[in-house]
């Protein structure tokens, strides 16, 4: 993992990630998740014992856990080429970021590169003068996933709240096609809309109301649509600071396991 | 022991040969020779079969039914209740009713189970063996929340020997007290007094992708049948003109796959390509055309794609949705319905669709990458528990909606005097569940509203013809395929059914190969929760699928849990090993299977129910984990089968995992690469085929024939057979256990309830009455009881009660002037019922019942005159004895009378017998013992069988059975003919020689007629013979005159109606060809339906009494005889406005 400030894209192995975003607030980090320590210890041990022949232990590294209220989200840029991962300069800047907290919906605007292969006239004419590419994604809660960094030969693990895969979202196309559709329906009125209609009013019985409840995904879409999005400030170069805060917090606590190894393993497999 | 043997041999075979034979007999003296005792040295290879009885002790033969039912009543019911727990009122928003818990047959307050009417009493009294269903509910009454426990909502039929049955874990004493047979396997229901089995149903596995190809039409399709509690639907991904589309029943036309993926949120075509094709350029070439298809439609965004799909959805909805919403709904819930999306993220579904597409692309690229529908790993068995669960949920939903309707009805009324208590109306509907369950089980019609499913023939009456037939029914699997279709694939023997499904036991004819039977050691899994397994996978290092980018998806192995991609791993083998280790250490349920599919780069984990699996010994580093010590502990009772699982010595493998393993058949075959060792090879056969001695020496179809005939053999049925009153029961009077047993016979207790006798057979020709497999029987043997059997037939009468308080009565007997009962009433007692032990002959009465003439109008006093006699009259060629008379009260308070009639039968000409090798024959002649051949010892055969039965049938097993049986008789031991093992022929021959007989089983016989020695040595010895249920007495039939059908006036059809013997079309052709016209006339008309008609010669129509109604004259009317059927035809034609006119001519002109 490179140390330099914020980066959109990180090392080869973990091709995507890693944009540490400090959204609303960075709260005090309390460390209390005892289980997690065990988990990694356990798996480490297992791996070591089992694969000691072909995969010897090179080094042992102390682990530090951050754990309570970090608001760490991973944004994965699905469409980014792997080639530009390391060249930070080629990463486009972020113009705006919007977030709907209830629905975990992210929207990020990236200004279009108008210097090359961009037909400004066409954009103006056909697509309402589109200026930015919007990326959209739904956050998926990622339990027991951690972001880690090394500092002073110690590993620091910070739990991740959600992972979001950002995908292109062509709002301008949808807008234009909606407009077209409306115009079309105005131009070619259907027989049904022209005909004079007799409107009959009936008293809606109470039971009908309950049947019209939306459920499942439809409800989720409706909620997401109605929720106002929060405009977020895009701040870069905060990673170093964030790290320091974690290191500081972690150093104030020492985690001790409350369960025996066996109890823990049994709990895991339940 | 060895010394004793040497001595014996000396005495038997003379002194001078002793020296030379010693070396030959050395083998016999070795400790591994059979007859070894428990105290002897333990040899793993020989003794690991002891795991099998240990397995059957915990599992039993019908354990799959019991497990399935137990799972249903213990776990599944709770899940159903939880899924339907709330009843809300549309009228009163405050009102709710919630189901908290459900129990069967036990109140929460009491510590003991409810008293249930014992099963045998239910059988006798035509009742249903059931237990009450109790629910705990919480509901509002006015402002208060009330908790009510133990509300009965109906009764659930209970599977015998399940954990809700009173026979569960009952010892032999309790079983005897309850009139139950301790050997009865259970696993069936008793509904209205009849025993009903829910047959195991075979189906294609649900929620899995199946890829098929039709090379001729160039179609490749991937399909998945999604099944949830709510609905069932099928989704296809198919090719059409080289392009790939999605097809679904509720979407009007096929949708280009790229549009579907875009609708799932995979907007970028790069990502689509990555998900479907990965880096493989040949896949990319195949798939690229689909991207063009979408761009031709001008679909670029998710919204456009959703609207495109939404416009094509054709489901009926109560509420109006916009096209966008329709599209969302279609993608979220309709397509691949088992992955219902509840939130905004469609990635899981997108991946599933992409996987289906990838499988199609793979199959296009390589036509071998298709799935086999007939592969047992792609099938699931549906058992009683699952079927009842489906039914119960349907009934419970109905119950709830009825309940809700009646609550709403009350709550609607604005001014109620009292607070409404919902509990009052719950009992009104409780009969629906009870009767719904009863009706479905007793008729076998499974109709499920929510799946719009109608299935008939799900249940069958348990066949109690013999113990084996009942057992065979419990292990039977019926297929969903149509029997009439002429397909070979589903009927063929599948290599993957090895050890899972019996290879021999299937019926002949139309259901051949479609009806199968379970092998001896199979277990069928029940559903297991996915979530803990998913969690476990992540713990042992699977990367969560929601965090993986599309580019790296296909670089690694995918982990599929019940067919759904949940993550990837780079080190598949390591992951699988870890998972297996956890399973072997008991941390994960032993019935969860995991295997690697390298073609699809997939690790498949299955937790679903209905998979067939079987236990195998684990082999590690070329060594069986089960050691001699373990087996010694097992035999001493220190270990049971489950301990072997816990210790990680034995594990269950399902078909898929079995095919990912390297299994050694015997210990000597173990190589360093072996992963498992077979417990016993004879477990490839099922319970029924396990009866055959030396089946591995027989031609394969012979074993199949025996499987069909073993079920028809008359024998002992159960220990309670004399307490049973069944419609028809056949019993053998002196059944014997076979001389040549198999291990299976001992395991299924066939030796305790046998169906056959050891007959001494001479294989020779005798008398000419033995052609076409007919047998010659010894009269003296029959006198001694060979083949003697008993039939018991039940008659049931109900004394009905009528609305006007009258009821059917039983009259006394009528007497003549001497005070003696009249002949018809001879067997009656003073109570008007037959007396036990009395003989009833044809025409005599054994239930003297009368019914009231007036059953509707009010009762008018005079009792005697108003009854009509409707006695039950005995009609049969042979007399019967009254065995039992039972009078009781059935469920609906009407008197129930059952009379059991018994007939004792000795074998006669034409009765059918068979050995255990598919060799059936009828009795051709019964010969006096004096005339039969005899050997040096004076033994004459019970049966003489014609040697022509052998060459074409190639039943070598039967010959070896004879030799083993003969050796056993001489040796005083029971020999074994276990499949792939059993007593060795050489050993048997040695015993024969030892006892002074020929090694080949041939004896010198003397003719009983001339007393001369027969020219050839005769193959002579005991063979186990079964008497089959087809007996002449039940079939013989003749008629001189008798009843005629009303409509046609032709003789009735069938023996039961005393019908005529038909001279059919082919016989008619023969008679015509022969020119016997008068015979033809006699057979077809005079002896059938001759009828004299009056034909008018002028108009050609028929009149009557010499008068033509058409011509209004009697002038030209001629009498003639035609068949009544012909007359009927003319009249029917007339009724259709067609006038058949007869033109008559005199053939005997001067």
Helical/strand content category of chain A:
alpha+beta
Range of strand content of chain B: 15-25%
Rounded radius of gyration of chain B (Å) = 37 Å
Shape descriptor of chain A reads: extended
Find the biggest chain interface: A-B, 43 and 49 residues
β-strand number of chain B:
51
- Average predicted confidence as pLDDT of chain B: 86
Cα(first) to Cα(last) distance of chain B is 103 Å
Alpha-beta content class of chain B: alpha+beta
Pfam families (chain A): RPC5 (PF04801)
Keywords (chain A): DNA-directed RNA polymerase, Transcription
Organism (chain A): Maudiozyma exigua
GO cellular component, one term (chain A): RNA polymerase III complex
Please describe what this structure looks like:
The complex is a heterodimer of chains A (270) and B (1150). Chain A has helices at residues 34-50, 120-126, 171-187, 191-194, 206-211, 216-226, 239-251, 261-268, and strands spanning 63-65, 73-77, 96-100, 105-111, 132-141, 146-151, 154-159, 162-168, 230-232. With 270 residues, chain A is of the alpha+beta class. Chain B is α+β, with helices and mostly antiparallel strands. In chain B, strands 19, 25, 26, 27, 28 and 29 form a 6-stranded mixed beta sheet that branches. In chain B, helix 6 (63-83) packs parallel to helix 15 (384-412) and helix 10 (269-277) packs antiparallel against helix 11 (281-296). Mean pLDDT of chain B is 86; it is low at 1-22 and 27-39.
């Amino acid at each position: 993992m490179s140390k330099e400030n914020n980066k959109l894209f990180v090392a080869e192995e973990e091709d995507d990630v890693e944009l540490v975003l400090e959204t609303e607030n960075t709260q005090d980090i309390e460390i209390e998740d005892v289980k997690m320590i065990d988990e990694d210890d356990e798996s480490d041990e297992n791996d070591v014992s089992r694969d000691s022949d072909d995969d010897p232990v090179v080094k042992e590294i102390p682990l530090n856990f951050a754990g309570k209220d970090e608001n760490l989200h991973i944004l994965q840029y699905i469409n980014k080429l792997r080639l530009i991962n390391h060249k930070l300069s080629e990463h486009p800047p972020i113009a705006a970021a919007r977030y709907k907290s209830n629905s975990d919906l992210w929207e990020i605007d990236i200004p279009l590169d108008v210097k090359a292969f961009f037909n400004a006239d066409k954009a103006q004419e056909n697509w309402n003068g589109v200026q930015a590419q919007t990326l959209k994604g739904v956050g998926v809660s990622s339990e027991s996933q951690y972001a880690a960094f090394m500092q002073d030969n110690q590993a620091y693990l910070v739990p991740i709240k959600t992972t979001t895969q950002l995908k292109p979202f062509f709002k301008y196309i949808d807008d234009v096609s909606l407009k077209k559709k409306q115009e079309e329906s105005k131009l070619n009125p259907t027989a049904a809309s022209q005909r004079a209609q007799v409107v009959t009013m009936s008293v809606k019985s109470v039971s009908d109301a309950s049947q019209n409840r939306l459920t499942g995904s439809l409800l989720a879409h409706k909620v997401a649509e109605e929720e106002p999005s929060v405009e977020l400030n895009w701040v870069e170069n905060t990673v170093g600071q964030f790290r320091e805060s974690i290191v500081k917090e972690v150093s104030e606590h020492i985690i001790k396991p409350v369960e025996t190894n066996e109890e823990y393993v049994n709990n895991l497999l339940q | 022991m060895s010394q004793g043997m040497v001595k014996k041999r000396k005495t038997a075979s003379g002194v001078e040969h002793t020296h030379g034979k010693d070396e030959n007999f050395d083998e016999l003296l070795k400790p591994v020779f059979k007859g070894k005792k428990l105290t002897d040295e333990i040899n793993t290879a020989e003794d690991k079969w002891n795991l099998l009885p240990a397995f059957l002790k915990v599992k039993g033969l019908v354990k799959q039914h019991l497990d399935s039912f137990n799972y249903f009543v213990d776990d599944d019911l709770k899940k159903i209740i939880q899924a339907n727990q709330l009843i809300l009122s549309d009228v009163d928003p405050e009102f709710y009713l919630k189901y908290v818990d459900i129990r069967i047959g036990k109140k929460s307050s009491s510590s003991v189970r409810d008293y249930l009417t014992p099963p045998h009493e239910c059988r006798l009294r035509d009742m249903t063996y059931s237990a009450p269903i109790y629910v705990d509910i919480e509901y509002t009454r006015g402002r208060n929340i009330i908790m009510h426990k133990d509300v009965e909502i109906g009764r659930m039929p209970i599977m015998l020997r399940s954990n809700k049955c009173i026979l569960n874990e009952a010892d032999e004493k309790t079983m005897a007290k309850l009139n139950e047979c301790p050997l009865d396997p259970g696993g069936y229901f008793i509904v209205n007094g009849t025993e009903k089995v829910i047959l195991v149903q075979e189906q294609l596995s649900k929620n899995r992708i199946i890829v098929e190809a039709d090379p001729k039409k160039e179609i490749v399709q991937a399909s998945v049948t999604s099944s949830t509690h709510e609905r069932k639907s099928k989704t296809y991904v198919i090719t059409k003109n080289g392009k790939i589309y999605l097809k679904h029943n509720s979407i009007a036309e096929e949708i280009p796959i790229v549009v579907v993926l875009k609708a799932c949120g995979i907007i970028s075509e790069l990502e689509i390509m990555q998900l479907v094709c990965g880096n493989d350029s040949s896949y990319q070439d195949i798939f690229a055309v689909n991207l063009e298809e979408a761009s031709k439609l001008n679909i670029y965004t998710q919204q456009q794609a959703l609207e495109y799909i939404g416009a094509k959805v054709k489901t009926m909805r109560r509420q109006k949705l916009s096209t966008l919403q329709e599209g969302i709904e279609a993608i979220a819930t309709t397509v691949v319905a088992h992955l219902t999306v509840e939130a905004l993220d469609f990635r899981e579904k997108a991946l599933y669709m992409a996987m289906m597409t990838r499988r199609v692309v793979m199959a296009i690229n390589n036509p071998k990458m298709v799935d086999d529908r007939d592969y047992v790993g792609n099938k699931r068995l549906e058992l009683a528990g699952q079927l009842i669960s489906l039914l119960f949920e349907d009934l419970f939903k109905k119950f709830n909606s009825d309940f809700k309707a009646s609550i709403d009805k009350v709550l609607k009324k604005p001014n109620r005097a009292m607070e409404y208590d919902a509990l009052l109306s719950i009992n009104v509907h409780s009969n629906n569940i009870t009767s719904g369950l009863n009706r479905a089980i007793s008729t076998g019609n499974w109709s499920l509203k929510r799946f719009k499913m109608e299935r008939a023939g799900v249940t069958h009456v348990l066949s109690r013809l013999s113990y084996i037939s009942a057992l065979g029914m419990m292990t039977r699997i019926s297929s969903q395929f149509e029997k009439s279709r002429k397909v070979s694939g589903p009927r063929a023997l599948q290599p993957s059914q090895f050890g899972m499904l019996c290879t021999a036991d299937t019926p002949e004819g139309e259901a051949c190969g479609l009806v199968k039977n379970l092998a001896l050691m199979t277990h069928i899994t029940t559903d297991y929760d996915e979530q803990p397994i998913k969690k476990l996978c992540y713990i042992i290092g699977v990367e969560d699928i929601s965090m993986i980018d599309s580019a790296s998806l296909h670089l690694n192995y995918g982990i599929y849990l019940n067919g759904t991609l949940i993550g990837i791993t780079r080190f598949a083998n390591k992951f699988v090993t870890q998972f297996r280790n956890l399973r072997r250490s008991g941390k994960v349920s032993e019935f969860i299977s995991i295997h690697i599919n390298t073609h699809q780069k997939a690790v498949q984990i299955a937790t679903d129910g209905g998979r067939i699996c079987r236990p195998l010994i684990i082999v590690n580093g070329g060594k069986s984990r089960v050691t001699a010590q373990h087996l010694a502990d097992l035999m001493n009772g220190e270990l049971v089968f489950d301990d072997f699982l816990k210790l990680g010595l034995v594990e269950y493998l399902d078909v898929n995992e079995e095919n990912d393993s390297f299994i050694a058949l015997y210990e000597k075959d173990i190589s360093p690469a072996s992963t498992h060792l077979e417990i016993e090879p004879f477990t490839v056969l099922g319970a029924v085929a396990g009866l055959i001695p030396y089946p591995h020496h027989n031609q394969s179809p012979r074993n199949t024939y025996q499987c069909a005939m073993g079920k028809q053999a008359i024998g002992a049925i159960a220990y309670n057979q004399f307490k049973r009153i069944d419609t028809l029961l056949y019993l053998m009077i002196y059944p014997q256990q076979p001389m040549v047993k198999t291990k299976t016979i001992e395991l299924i207790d066939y030796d305790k309830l046998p169906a056959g006798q050891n007959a001494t057979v001479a294989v020779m020709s005798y008398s000419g009455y033995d052609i076409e497999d007919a047998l010659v029987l010894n009269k003296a043997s029959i006198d001694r009881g060979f083949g003697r059997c008993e039939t018991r037939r039940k008659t049931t009468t109900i004394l009905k009660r009528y609305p006007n308080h009258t009821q059917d009565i039983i009259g006394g007997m009528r007497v003549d002037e001497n005070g003696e009962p009249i002949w018809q009433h001879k067997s009656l007692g003073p109570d008007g019922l037959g007396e036990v032990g009395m003989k009833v002959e044809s025409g005599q009465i054994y239930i003297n019942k009368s019914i009231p003439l007036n059953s509707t109008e009010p009762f008018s006093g005079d009792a005697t005159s108003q009854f009509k006699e409707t006695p039950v009259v005995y009609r049969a060629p042979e007399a019967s004895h009254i065995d039992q008379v039972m009078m009781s009260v059935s469920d609906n308070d009407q008197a129930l009378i059952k009379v059991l009639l018994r007939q004792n039968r000795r074998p006669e000409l034409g009765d059918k017998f068979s050995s255990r090798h598919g060799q059936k024959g009828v009795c051709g002649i019964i010969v006096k013992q004096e005339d039969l051949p005899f050997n040096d010892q004076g033994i004459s055969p019970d049966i003489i069988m014609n040697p022509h039965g052998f060459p074409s049938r190639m039943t070598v097993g039967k010959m070896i059975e004879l030799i083993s049986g003969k050796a056993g008789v001489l040796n005083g031991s029971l020999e074994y003919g276990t499949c792939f093992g059993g007593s060795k022929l050489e050993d048997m021959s040695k015993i024969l020689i030892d006892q002074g007989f020929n090694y080949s089983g041939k004896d010198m016989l003397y003719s009983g007629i001339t007393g001369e020695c027969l020219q050839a040595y005769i193959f002579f010895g005991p063979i186990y013979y079964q008497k089959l249920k087809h007996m002449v007495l039940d079939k013989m039939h003749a008629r001189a005159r008798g009843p005629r059908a009303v409509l046609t006036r032709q003789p009735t059809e069938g023996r039961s109606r005393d019908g005529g013997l038909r001279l059919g079309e082919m016989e008619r052709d023969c008679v015509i060809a022969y020119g016997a016209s008068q015979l033809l006339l006699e057979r077809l008309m005079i002896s059938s339906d001759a009828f004299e008609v009056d034909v008018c010669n002028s108009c050609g129509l028929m009149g009557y009494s010499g008068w033509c109604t058409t011509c209004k004259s009697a002038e030209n009317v001629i009498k003639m005889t035609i068949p009544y059927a012909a007359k009927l035809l003319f009249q029917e034609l007339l009724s259709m406005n067609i006038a058949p006119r007869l033109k008559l001519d005199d053939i005997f002109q001067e």
